[in-house]
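From: lab user (bench 3)
To: helpdesk
Subject: output format question, protein + fe (ii) ion

Hello, I'm new to running complex predictions and I'm not sure whether the block I got back is the full result or only part of it. Here's what I submitted:
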Amino acid sequence: MPRTAANKATTTKAPARAPRRAPAKASSNNVLNILKEDHKKVDKMFEQYEKMKDKADDSDKQMLVERACAELTMHTRIEEEIFYPALRGAIKDMDLLDEAQVEHATAKNLIQELQSMHPGDELYDAKFTVLGEYVRHHVEEEEKEIFPQAKKAKVDLAGMGEEVRQRKEELRMELGIMEEMPEMAAKPKASAAKRKTVH
Ligand SMILES: [Fe+2]
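Helpdesk reply: Thanks, we reran it on our side. This is the complete output you should expect:
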């Protein structure tokens, strides 16, 4: 198995580019793109936590966990309120939607537990790591199985995207989520440590 590390210049630098605030294009209104962006965003948070969990302050850890939990709560609500109901009856394999909802329920339990815990508590890291595993599984199933069926179904993906954007604004207010991810926990406390191999 060839291992090429040479062409990987993955040093995380201060963000040089402006936050994305371009006017919504037709493609970015597609609900699938919006959900994929959410998936990427939380995935980054889990990755970030993995890297910092043994060396960061409790407050940084807690901030990241709270942020991830809030983002996930918003995401699951969007899917349960808008996306899944629209697909019911429109896609072939509706078991997938049931399974996704069960997965959401499991994730919600972990989120609730984490929200009542502190980073010093036993199993705090473990719970967040397991939450990340659930989420990755959910993302994989959704993107590989549900999204392709949604593309074929007779549903208005752009219209749904617009609805999702509006609902997100409300949920952001309700859950206290800022639009752009702050640089919290991004401050390196120790020099760039060992890089995790992503398979
Ligand atoms: Fe999702």
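A quick orientation on your result: The chain has one domain: 33-175. Let us know if anything else is unclear.
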